[in-house]
Design brief:
With 101 residues, the protein is an alpha+beta fold. The chain contains 2 helices and 5 strands. Helix content is 15%, strand content 19%. It has a 5-stranded antiparallel β-sheet. It holds the Pfam family zf-UBP.
Length: 101
Amino acid sequence: MSNGCGHLMTVNRVTPGSRGCEECLKAGSWWVHLRLCRSCGHVGCCDDSPNRHATAHFHATHHPVIEGYDPPEGWGWCYVDEVFLDLPDQTPQLGPIPRFV
């Protein structure tokens, strides 16, 4: 994993905003994996999911770094630099994550 990212200073300790993809839960949709915004705590679905809410969140907010959140995957991704990252910590889950797939 690369640490050649200029956005590591934007990584915060965050509280996840929900126990699943925030937008999918509201719409009754499903996801494959979850991604956690390490700027604000938004929980969105991955790009293998039909709605790609984590990437949509990046485009709307320009928050650069996400964490592979569910299942806990131990990596980060910077959308701007397009590199995987070693994160300084992993965010604990709020509780069991509902499964849709």
